[in-house]
Design brief:
This protein has 270 residues and is an alpha/beta fold. The protein has one domain: Uncharacterised protein PF01937, DUF89, domain 3 (Rossmann fold, 3-Layer(aba) Sandwich), CATH 3.40.50. 46% of the residues lie in helices and 15% in strands. The strands form two sheets. A seven-stranded mixed β-sheet has the order 1-9-8-7-2-3-6. It is globular, with a radius of gyration of 17 Å.
Length: 270
């Protein structure tokens, strides 16, 4: 797995030179901004009465949030100059059909019968986790699903760690353990055992392996986890790979556009 090896070598060199979490300040700033926007993003989603349209809105939110990626040279430059607007990003996604576009199939399966348990391998800090993934996970919780958010053990670029994710949720949950009116007792945070922006699913932590044993939906979010290393991975349960294409080489390989979107859904036939 060439991408995995390159990422591993880069992280090892950075750590040997004493650089353990070089984007910590940026992550903290972006988390604070996203937390302030979270209530409005959720209210806008909840106001959509049509469930199919609400699902599409949540998926678009994941794409818009996934733009905050300092592992992309082009996006890092844009971010440093102008910052990024989440709501504007939602409106300005590339038009459908996307380079891989299984949104309709995913919506149809969701509307037919929601899953019982989803494991989501999350990606970046800031808008990605807070404004993209958490509203999506909250909707699943509202439908009675159990949701496991699996985050990195150690920092890598601007990926969120499981410790940071716990801190984020402590700031978003109210005193009754609710996330904007939705009970979070079925929301679990897990240490994936990973320390890279990509992931080898054969080497996840024992915790995640155990929590995934009865999952009926696995979601891999982000270009590194969902596209570069696991786009064609097969599972014994339903799976969703979702992320934005942020490297020209990946766009060329897929036959799509830079900043194109990928939503690849595979339903297990029983």
């Amino acid at each position: 797995m060439v991408v995995h090896r390159i990422a591993l070598i880069r992280e090892l060199i950075l750590r040997e030179l004493g650089f353990r979490d070089i984007f910590k300040k940026v992550k903290d700033e972006e988390n604070a901004k996203a937390i302030s926007l979270f209530p409005e993003v959720v209210r806008l989603s909840d106001a959509i009465n049509d469930e199919g349209k609400r699902i599409e809105n949540l998926v678009r939110g994941i794409f818009a949030g996934n733009i905050f990626d300092l592992g992309s040279a082009q996006l890092a430059e844009v971010f440093s100059k102008d910052g990024m607007s989440f709501l504007a990003s939602c409106q300005n996604l590339v038009s459908r059909p996307w380079v891989i576009d299984d949104l309709d199939n995913f919506q149809a399966r969701w509307l037919k019968k929601p899953w019982k348990k989803a494991v989501i391998f999350v990606d970046n800090s800031g808008a990605d986790i807070i404004l993209g993934i958490l509203p999506f996970a909250r909707e699943m919780l509202r439908l009675g699903m159990q949701v496991v958010l699996a985050a990195n053990e150690l920092p890598s670029i601007n990926d969120v760690t499981y410790i940071e994710l716990a801190e984020i949720l402590s700031k978003l949950n109210d005193e009754n353990g609710q996330l904007m009116g939705v009970d979070t007792s079925n929301l679990l945070i897990a240490n994936s055992g990973n320390d890279l922006p990509v992931i080898d699913l054969a080497r996840v932590s024992q915790e995640v392996a155990y929590l995934s044993s009865d999952a009926d939906l696995v979601i891999l979010e982000g270009m590194g986890r969902g596209i570069e290393t696991n786009l064609y991975a097969q599972f014994k349960c339903d799976s969703l790979k979702i992320g934005m294409v942020k490297h020209p080489e990946v766009a060329q390989f897929l036959g799509g556009r830079l900043y194109d979107c990928v939503i690849k859904y595979n339903e297990v036939q029983i």
